[in-house]
# Entry
Amino acid sequence: MKPFTKEISFLTNGKGLIEITQKVSEIVRQSGVLNGIVHMFVCHTSASLLLFENADESARDDIEEFFDRLVPEDDPWFSHSFEGPDDMPAHIRMALTRSSESIPIKGGRILLGTWQGIFLFEHRATPHRRVIVVTVLGE
Amino acid sequence: MKPFTKEISFLTNGKGLIEITQKVSEIVRQSGVLNGIVHMFVCHTSASLLLFENADESARDDIEEFFDRLVPEDDPWFSHSFEGPDDMPAHIRMALTRSSESIPIKGGRILLGTWQGIFLFEHRATPHRRVIVVTVLGE
Amino acid sequence: MKPFTKEISFLTNGKGLIEITQKVSEIVRQSGVLNGIVHMFVCHTSASLLLFENADESARDDIEEFFDRLVPEDDPWFSHSFEGPDDMPAHIRMALTRSSESIPIKGGRILLGTWQGIFLFEHRATPHRRVIVVTVLGE
# Structure
């Protein structure tokens, strides 16, 4: 049970969800681990991870709009604003979702539910390169 | 340190928190693991996990009401609505809580705090069968 | 790959974020683990964990204010109020952040991003002693 670690990176295209399920599945296959857990970690404070409905794009549109409304860019009381109006909302949206996520592996397969996909959630308005560290634990 | 995995399922009864602490503790006992971590994963996009105050039921009532108010069913801007008015709010409430949770094990016992219980959080209005995968890592 | 577990505790000073990155790094060093994962767990229902921007204090001020506004103390509909007006908001703020968090380890070093720090998030108004269980898995 030696941990298998791999870094992957994605160039985002402004705010929104990017599905990374296939990349993570590939790493699980490469690891040769049949039973255990795959752990994902996003090394940033304005991007996050989310397991979300991956069948219907309208669900993704709605959750992006929900966060735009819950944490609007133009809140006048933000003091942390020197990196632009999207920066502080990005940190808050990250805090409300996840920096790490983990999923069980059985028989070499990630045990995601039928409608679950793994998503990188970009919270900044401009494109960013985001690094995710994937660690497979098990045997 | 061979991972011990077990699936459990619960029939929910509409929105709300269901305590599953005892079921998870039983699986930790069955695993024989004395030191390590128990990991839980909910295979759904409209139910989630939450560690929450398990002594006073009024705290559970209040958090359910909080989510009803934060993510109301009748928001006119939802586009993902073909599965009913409770579906999109369910996905958002899941996103704001947790798909996976994990707790340390020491001396064969889950190290929950005095007031902590493990809860399955159902976000749909009608009963659903929910599957949770419990993985014990350690020795 | 024997799990290495250590409990650390902090005396908080009312609501706010306390950086604990250095303490966690020390435990990873003590464990001797070179590759794997460090897992942190807060044993309380009114305190939580958060990976957050650790460079600029104004970002911390803003997220504390965000939670003060999102979950105000004086909401008249709270029923769980016998422990004071800050108690129920504390449980909700905990539910919206994290009870457990985990970060990959590579070459004996925690793979935090440049701007990421590990924070204990106290949600009660008065000082509390908070216990965090740190578990290192790997080899």
Observations:
- The longest strand of chain C covers residues 129-138.
- The CA atoms of residues 15 and 123 of chain C lie 5 Å apart.
- Chain C has three helices and eight strands.
- The longest helix of chain C spans residues 57-70.
